[in-house]
Design goal:
mainly beta; three-stranded antiparallel β-sheet; elongated
Amino acid sequence: MSVVVVMVGRCDSVHHGLPDRQGVCTYPCTLTQT
């Protein structure tokens, strides 16, 4: 199951996020639970 949610975290090359002023990124993340 893949759930797409909006997470706030650090900028990762894996997750293409939008950098904020303080370097905080808001990007759509695909939560894959194993």
